[in-house]
């Protein structure tokens, strides 16, 4: 049937192709929500899928830009492409989102976050986003949710592609790949290179101190799988991304500091790797086993200057991973039994008291669809070498009122262990910067949703409350501390509608990410944010308009450093030259809005604001035979 659909799409106009692609997307199969394949329409969790077609026609140059358009997500960025960035999902911390690449964890054990700014969008086929705590399936870190990135894999036939682009800030892009399948063997190899001269990472308001802080990246991903006999498949996946980003160190651009040295340009070399070997085996007709051995690397080497002397700072995290998942089909529903092992190893020029931590997890999960009813239950026990045992669980129920309307409700608990930086970072000039007495963060989340879905429409209203105990924040002295409790309540409204030549989608988030004791907003999070996307197709043309908006945020826990709200407008255009060639253009921030996503200190006293891109344009041409 899949071959027939692909064959039928060949030769369609852009308008017809876009309609067919969006129509098919309504029946996406997702795996991240339950760790087993499920039709998106039957999933209980609050899930989004960013399809390959959406990524292609969106024309965004970074993963952060793609994620910013998704419900429940806010972003922070320290000065443009390749600079330290993060996402807040449903108002939780940037370290509360677990990121997987083809099933492999990708995270820094020192910073506690994923270096999203160095993951090129060109290597990604599609993305699954699960909002809400799912530690009962994935273990530590998934307090806010899970993002799973799937790189491009082998497909039927022989399918090469290539893409070239150029834009503002002397931004260049080149990518090429080959995907195919020969008999029982599927393969894919993808290479991308991008470079930008960028702009000054810090908004100094002083042209004599401004410079361009560029970024470049070279990445490769690939996969190889072979079906030995029916029901038994082995394979491997890989993703390697190497980048260099330049940034502004205010010690080098502010003459009031002793280390003032404007001639030195600070930069960091960033590397991320995700490798895995897997074996998928149908042991019995009702028992399917997946064994995956994975390895993740997150490394940054920062080169700076201190009192005129060059400095080098290394932070490297290696994550050895083992996962054995067994899915057993029962007369009613599917039972999943799983064993997880994660070993974090840290190597750094900074002297940490501990450099290794092990976590083992044992999972039992059950999913059943019985008529109009869907049930889900999961429980997990983690044995952490530093923090002992942690038990998490989840319960969910969904009921289909009719073919279009559905209601769901769920409960989930989660936890996150403090990072190596939180616990062991050495004192700085005699002042503490870490806290060895920190406790793991723990959360309990309840939510309910009402959803509507038909052949051309999709809408959902989700209400949630996430109570986080021992939330780790930076106190007034910038030392990590456990906040007694934070309660985040919110409403997410998301909808999309497809007509023959027009598609409309958008979302609105109204939330209260507050410190329960002081009532202050959590750092860099807003009470309201949303986005709206409009597309129009005619013949071989497609035009798009996007709006992203956010209310005010604060850069500090005391809510004294205010960052004003903002609204950004973007536009896209795409022309299908013929069946194999497509020309695209994307204009971002077309009204040249001046806004901030992060500050460095107090701009009015001794700090600076991190700059954001002004109006910019990117044009590319893509070759992809149908």
From TrEMBL:
Signal peptide: 1-20
Domain TonB-dependent receptor plug residues, every copy: 42-146
Subcellular location: Cell outer membrane
Residues covered by the TonB-dependent receptor-like beta-barrel domain: 184-590
One GO CC term on file: cell outer membrane
GO biological process: cobalamin transport; monoatomic ion transport
Topology of the protein relative to the lipid bilayer: Multi-pass membrane protein
Gene3D superfamilies assigned to the protein according to its UniProt record, in alphabetical order: TonB-dependent receptor, beta-barrel domain, TonB-dependent receptor, plug domain
Keyword terms: Cell outer membrane, Ion transport, Membrane, Receptor, Signal, TonB box, Transmembrane, Transmembrane beta strand, Transport
Matching PROSITE patterns: TONB_DEPENDENT_REC_3
Family: Belongs to the TonB-dependent receptor family.
Protein name stated in the entry: Vitamin B12 transporter
Organism in which the protein naturally occurs: Methylophilus rhizosphaerae
């Amino acid at each position: 049937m899949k071959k027939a659909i692909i064959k039928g799409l060949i030769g369609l106009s852009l308008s017809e192709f876009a309609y067919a692609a969006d129509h098919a997307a309504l029946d996406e199969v997702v795996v991240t929500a339950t760790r087993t394949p499920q039709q998106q329409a039957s999933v209980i969790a609050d899930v989004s899928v960013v399809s390959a077609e959406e990524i292609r026609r969106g024309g965004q140059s970074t993963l952060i830009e793609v994620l910013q358009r998704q419900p429940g997500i806010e972003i922070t960025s320290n000065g443009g492409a390749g600079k330290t960035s993060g996402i807040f999902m449903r108002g939780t911390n940037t370290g509360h989102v677990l990121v997987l690449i083809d099933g492999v964890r990708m995270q820094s054990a020192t910073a506690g976050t994923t270096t999203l700014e160095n993951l090129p969008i060109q290597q990604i086929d599609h993305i699954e986003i699960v909002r809400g705590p799912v530690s009962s399936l994935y273990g530590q870190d998934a307090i806010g949710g899970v993002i799973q990135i799937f790189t491009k894999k082998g497909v039927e036939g022989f399918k090469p592609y290539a893409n070239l682009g150029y834009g503002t800030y002397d931004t260049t892009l080149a990518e090429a790949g080959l995907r195919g399948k020969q008999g029982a063997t599927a393969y894919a190899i993808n290479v991308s290179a991008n470079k930008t001269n960028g702009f000054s990472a810090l908004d100094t308001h002083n042209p004599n101190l401004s410079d361009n802080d560029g970024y470049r990246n070279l990445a490769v991903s690939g996969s190889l799988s072979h079906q030995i006999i029916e029901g038994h498949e082995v394979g491997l996946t890989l993703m390697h991304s190497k980048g260099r980003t330049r940034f502004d160190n205010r010690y080098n651009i502010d003459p009031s500091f002793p280390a003032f040295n404007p001639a030195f340009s600070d930069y960091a070399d960033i590397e991320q790797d995700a490798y895995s070997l897997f074996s998928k085996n149908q042991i019995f007709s009702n028992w399917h086993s997946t064994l995956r051995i994975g390895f993740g690397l997150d490394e940054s080497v920062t080169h700076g200057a201190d009192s005129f002397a060059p400095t080098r700072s290394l932070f490297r995290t290696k994550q050895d991973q083992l996962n054995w998942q067994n899915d057993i089909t029962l007369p009613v529903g599917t039972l999943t039994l799983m064993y997880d092992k994660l070993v974090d190893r840290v190597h750094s020029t900074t002297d940490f008291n501990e450099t290794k931590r092990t976590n083992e997890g044992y999972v039992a999960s059950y999913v059943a669809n019985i008529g109009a009813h869907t049930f889900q239950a999961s429980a997990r026990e983690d044995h952490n070498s530093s923090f002992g045992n942690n038990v998490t669980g989840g319960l969910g129920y969904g009921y289909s009122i009719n073919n279009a309307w559905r209601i769901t409700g769920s409960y989930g608990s989660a936890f996150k262990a403090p990072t190596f930086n939180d616990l062991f970072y050495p004192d700085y000039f005699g002042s503490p910067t870490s806290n060895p007495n920190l406790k793991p963060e723990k959360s309990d989340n309840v939510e309910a949703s009402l959803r509507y879905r038909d052949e051309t429409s999709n809408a959902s209203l989700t209400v949630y409350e996430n109570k986080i105990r021992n939330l780790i924040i930076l106190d007034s002295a910038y030392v990590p501390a456990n906040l007694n409790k934070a309660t985040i309540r919110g409403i997410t409204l998301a909808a999309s509608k497809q007509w023959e030549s027009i598609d409309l989608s958008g979302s609105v988030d109204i939330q209260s990410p507050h410190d329960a004791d002081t009532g202050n907003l959590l750092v860099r999070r807003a009470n309201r944010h949303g986005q709206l996307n409009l597309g129009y197709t005619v013949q071989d043309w497609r035009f798009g308009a996007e709006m992203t908006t956010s209310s005010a945020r604060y850069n500090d826990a005391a809510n004294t450093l205010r960052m004003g709200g903002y609204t950004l407008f973007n536009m896209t255009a795409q022309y299908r030259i013929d069946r194999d060639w497509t020309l695209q253009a994307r204009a971002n921030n077309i009204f040249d809005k001046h806004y901030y996503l992060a500050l460095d200190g107090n701009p009015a006293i001794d700090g600076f604001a991190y700059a954001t891109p002004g109006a910019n344009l990117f044009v590319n041409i893509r070759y992809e035979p149908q």
